[in-house]
Amino acid sequence: MIINFVSGNPGKVREISDIIKNSISNIEIRQLDMDLPEYQGDSEFIVIKKLEEARKNAGNIEGAILVEDSSLLLNVYKGLPGPYIKYFLKAVGPEGIYKMVTPYEDHTATAQCIMGLQLPNDEPRLFTGKTEGEIVKPRGNNGFGYDTCFQINSINKTYGEITEQEKNEISHRMKATKLMIEFLKNL
Amino acid sequence: MIINFVSGNPGKVREISDIIKNSISNIEIRQLDMDLPEYQGDSEFIVIKKLEEARKNAGNIEGAILVEDSSLLLNVYKGLPGPYIKYFLKAVGPEGIYKMVTPYEDHTATAQCIMGLQLPNDEPRLFTGKTEGEIVKPRGNNGFGYDTCFQINSINKTYGEITEQEKNEISHRMKATKLMIEFLKNL
């Protein structure tokens, strides 16, 4: 089966492709680099709308369509920046995300990935992966996005301090992808 | 002429209606309370898309359609939260907006209002009003939104410390509305 993954970020595509290849055989992930307008709202709504737009834009493409929304929920900001984290990273980087929480005692955060899968003739399927952690002064050189300022509770390291392989074992994106794999295995 | 102003915020509708009534006679502002999905992106894009959606939803309504995007651009955040300010205000209030800039020396900000007007058989018209100021610990009890934490440079007071009448003389929303009034007068 072909899964067309809508993303402009090769780092994400590689992450997901690696996880899937290790778990299920007959699936090929193809990058579908299209620039889709995204709605404001909660992550579930954004993913469902993104899936609709991608289907419209992709025309009669072979296989399934996969979209993803990665967000960072700061608890003192009641879940913001959430899906808008990409704009904040672009503006102030991981150091600036850390500065956002410094006026507060509570630095806890959730890294969240929602994958939206649209198989031909099926309803949209959403798979949510979450990892609990806290925002720290950036550490490490690996990863992308907010990886260096997000310290995972279970290992007390940031995503930036572990290898890509280690990340693929514990990340929020991995958790969402595993849920999707379970779904695909049971088709 | 009837102008149908898409807004769920009676405070905004009253502000604009007051400004227009004092400047031009034969215009009636009606509140059009519809819940429109909004796109992510820069304010101009959001306003144009909002206008398209509003037209679709309003059907054969009599008169023009007016939408508005109010945003707060913090300079140390390179213009963010921008159009997402409404979510931040809901989450952390004006006090939390102030806390966002406390780790930085630069507390300067721009309050921006873009009004989008769609007359029948015309292209969308955008009118942008800006007021320069700085983010301060909230002061005053008037206004709504970020009024209490935004100190206007020209008067060293927050929008929360001046009356509605005073605000209607100097606000970013007034500036955008005046530009629209000039346009309407020259029709």
How is this structure best summarized?
Two copies of one chain form a homodimer. With 187 residues, chain A is an alpha+beta fold. Chain A contains five helices and eight strands.
| Count of domains of chain A | 1
CATH topology of chain A: Maf protein
CATH architecture of chain A: Alpha-Beta Complex
Could you report the average pLDDT of chain A, rounded to the nearest whole number? Answer: 94
How is the biggest beta sheet of chain A arranged?
8 strands, mixed
CATH class of chain A: Alpha Beta
Pick out its properties.
globular; 27% strand; Maf protein; 8 strands; eight-stranded mixed β-sheet; 187 residues; homodimer; alpha+beta; 5 helices
What does this entry look like structurally?
The structure is a homodimer of 187-residue chains. Chain A has 187 residues and is an alpha+beta fold. The first copy, chain A, has one domain (2-185): Alpha-Beta Complex (Maf protein). Helices cover 35% and strands 27% of the residues of chain A. Chain A contains 5 helices and 8 strands, in the order βαβαββαββββαα. Chain A has helices at residues 10-21, 43-58, 85-101, 164-170, 172-185, and strands spanning 2-6, 28-32, 64-74, 81-82, 108-118, 125-135, 150-152, 157-158. In chain A, strand 5 and strand 6 (125-135) form a beta hairpin. The interface between A and B is medium-sized, with 27 and 27 residues.
Helix/strand layout:
Two copies of one chain form a homodimer.
Chain A: E1 2-6, H1 10-21, E2 28-32, H2 43-58, E3 64-74, E4 81-82, H3 85-101, E5 108-118, E6 125-135, E7 150-152, E8 157-158, H4 164-170, H5 172-185
Parallel strand pairs in A: 1-2, 1-3
Antiparallel strand pairs in A: 3-4, 3-5, 5-6, 6-7, 7-8
Helix pairs in contact in A: 1-5, 4-5
